[in-house]
Amino acid sequence: MYLQRRNRILRQSPAIRAMVAETILTPSNFIVPLFIDEGSGIKTEIPSMPGIYRMSLDNTVKEVKELWNMGLKSVLLFIKCKDELKDNKGTEALNPQGLMQRSIRAIKDAWPDMLVMTDVALDPFSSYGHDGIVEGSEIVNDATVEVLAQMSVSHAEAGADFVAPSDMMDGRIGAIRAALEGNNFTKTGIMSYSAKYASSFYGPFRDALDSAPGFGDKKTYQMDYANRREAIRETLMDIEEGADIVMVKPALAYLDIIREVKDNVDVPVSAYNISGEYAMIKAAAKMGWLNEDKAILETLTAIKRAGADLIATYFAKDAVRLIS
Ligand code: PBG
Questions:
Q1: pLDDT digits (tens, 9 = 90+) for 62-111
Q2: What is the pLDDT of residue 210?
């Protein structure tokens, strides 16, 4: 057989495949989500997220050092708020001595180079488990945005490098930027969850923080998964309002959105490989139905290939082990 062109030439050995690989995962592109709890000496595995732990601050600081030594350079903090501190106004979210604020300070004290990103939304602090203030059966926008802006300033005061609003209220990026500017936090970045969909894949995360909505769902603020153009509108508005990094979330069922956002913006794009995506691979691997290590690398590479510059993922440590 005479062929002018044989595509298999570039696939014939590991060396050639590595030489021509278009997408390469690197540790500095990963963002590591951390779940922080009160107390000391605590390291509790989350049942629906095997291998992921809710840790007290002492153990979290140790973990951060380990992450840094592995080449991982950013963490995204989530805290588990005690039930008795939850209310409808996010009071505890603004407490300068709150667990989030103490965690930011402790991590930056122990390891100043580690980039600390913080979740900005009311759900862990809300007696209703919603991302905003509830009036009647409504999650009200404008009053929530005010609290989110104050919360962002409080995180910046504690030393956060980036605040990461995950709430999907309208106008919050502009309000947060104005509040940061107004308080002279001119070096604090905003990583906006700009296209965040109402997803069934957040289930395990809500177990981890005990933050499931007490009534209804999040469909009046998080996006409808039927929509694509809306993601572009949301993202462009967030950039105009001052977002430094934009995010698509979830990742796996939304690779088309990641690509489309990537093609439409000139800021770094991140994607959140969320809890349910983690749990699915873990569960299938446990059953012996797929090879976990291979599935992890394939998944993360696909997310990056789709256009994500950064990936928030519970697989970060596994991935570093696998690529090194
Ligand atoms: C809360 C928040 C959620 C996640 C990150 N921030 C859950 C939600 O919106 O209900 C999900 C992360 C994951 O599932 O891994 N605003």
A1: 999 999 999 999 999 999 999 999 999 999 999 999 999 999 999 999 99
A2: 86
Cα 274 to ligand 1 centroid, rounded to whole Å: 8
How many whole angstroms from 4 Cα to the centroid of ligand 1? 51
Return the closest-CA partner of residue 211 out of 129, 134, 99, 139.
129
Residue 198 lies in a domain: yes
17 within a domain of the structure (yes/no): no
Q: Any alpha helices (H) in the chain, and if so which ranges? A: 14-20, 57-69, 99-110, 141-158, 172-182, 203-209, 229-241, 255-264, 275-286, 292-306, 316-323
Number of domain units in the chain: 1
Q: Is 196 a catalytic residue?
A: yes
CATH number of the domain that 55 lies in?
A: 3.20.20.70
The domain of 243 spans: 25-323
Query: Which of 47, 48, 143 lies closest to 90, judged by CA?
Result: 143
How far, in Å, is the centroid of ligand 1 from the Cα of 69? Answer: 27
44 backbone dihedrals φ, ψ, rounded to 5°: -110, 125
304 in a structural domain: yes
**pLDDT single digits (tens) 141-162:** 999 999 999 999 999 999 999 9
Of 131, 167, 205, the residue with max ligand 1 atoms within 8 A of its CB, to mutate for a pocket test, comes to: 205
Joined tokens for residue 253: 């069922």
Report whether residue 123 contacts ligand 1, using a CB cutoff of 6 Å: yes
Please tell me whether the peptide bond between 27 and the residue prior to it is cis, using omega within 30 degrees of 0.
no
* Separation of alpha carbons 296 and 315, rounded Å: 7
Q: Is 313 in the pocket of ligand 1 (CB under 6 A)?
A: no
Mean pLDDT on 251-259: 98
Residue 273 Cβ contacting ligand 1 at under 6 Å: no
Kindly state whether residue 7 falls inside one of the protein's structural domains.
no
User: Where are the alpha helices (H) located in 25-182, listed in sequence order?
Assistant: 57-69, 99-110, 141-158, 172-182
User: Is 282 known to be catalytic?
Assistant: no
Mutation test of ligand 1: which of 35, 36, 48, 123 has the most ligand atoms closer than 8 Å to its C-beta? Answer: 123
